[in-house]
Amino acid sequence: MRRVGLAGIVVSFLAVGYLAAVPVPAARRVPQSMQGVTDIDAHQAEGSKSAPIIMEVFSDYQCPACKSLYNGTDRLLVDNYVNTGKVYLIHRDYPLPMHAYSRVAARYARAAAQLGKLQPVAQALFQNQEKWEASGDVDGTVASVLSAGEMAKVRALVKGGTMDPLIDKDYALGTIYHVNQTPTTIIHAKAQTYPVVGVVTFDTLHGFLDQLSK
Prior knowledge:
Blueprint: H1 11-16, E1 45-46, E2 53-59, H2 64-82, E3 87-93, H3 102-114, H4 118-127, H5 129-135, H6 138-143, H7 148-160, H8 163-176, E4 184-189, E5 192-197, H9 202-213
Parallel strand pairs: 2-3
Antiparallel strand pairs: 1-3, 2-4, 4-5
Helix pairs in contact: 3-4, 3-7, 3-8
């Protein structure tokens, strides 16, 4: 996988767990129009919009590294920062062309999100990633955690084709941020933006977020 080459990036510190011991590095400057995060699908977000830190996670359901971030970091992040009003967490769909079923999975997860079922579906997709990657049975994986009625609505939304424009919006935003690897997390705090590429442990992220909160 390729890494994003951006000036002022915090990746080199976060990836090896050093950031908690050093001052927060300079943020990457972004266009003024991007200082405030816009075009947010509330169905894809968790927490309070008034939280002092906003995090956008560009993720691919077929990406093993995204699975690792979801299982090892994101749930702890939700418990300790999102649910306590410190972080507003936004999931951004970024299906990579190299993955045969990642866009299909994004369609189903996005449709489930419209019903308020993003989290159980995201969990099912990540936990069973190897199975549906081999079989292509995204539909069956999602159906395993939804009721028959919910699944009928999800299938109708997927078939209707309305999920793709929403996914494409996220993808277009990712190109503005120069995302070329998943997962990529964009952290916004105090009118500055910090791109974080790859998997970061919760312990390291915890230290970084606490520094940003000071």
